[in-house]
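Recall the central idea of this unit: under ordinary conditions, the amino acid sequence of a chain determines the structure it adopts. In this exercise we apply that idea directly, starting from the sequence alone.
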Amino acid sequence: MIEKGYLKYIVPPLLFIIMLLDAHVNRLFTHFFNDSYQMNAHVMIIVLLVVSELLDKRFMIGTMLVVGILYDLYYIGVIGIYAVILPLTVALIYLFGRVIHQSLLTLFFSMIIFVTFFELGSTLIQMVFQLAQVDNQLFVTRFLGPTLGMNILLFIFLIFPIRKLLVEKGSYSD
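Accordingly, the structure predicted from this sequence is:
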């Protein structure tokens, strides 16, 4: 476990590295399915859900604003989409923090809700600014469904190592 005092120095670079790793996982799985399904790994959201219990809201919103700007520059080239949706996601995580951190089950369902919010929000922003045209049926069946499926599996495999690394033992009462 990382000491709580050091966590605020470790989490920003960790989130940046996870953002880059998420992109490689996305490409790997999309290529594995011959580009018929596109899925986005959101280990970053899983880590955000875990560390939101320990770190200050303002610090995390600022951190995610910076990560969002880097995300926009690295992947899209237009600043504003992820620079808006990432801090907004963190603000909502903190707003519902008491419910999210009740048990591992509420954390799991919160991950599903926030991944859905993240994907719908970023797609909606892209549609509003005419950066993307999306067929709703294809979005749900070929993107959102596979994305949620992959993130459910990632949550199952990674939640215990992430919690063990970042949070004290026995923080959830299951």
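Residues 136-166 form the longest helix (31 residues).
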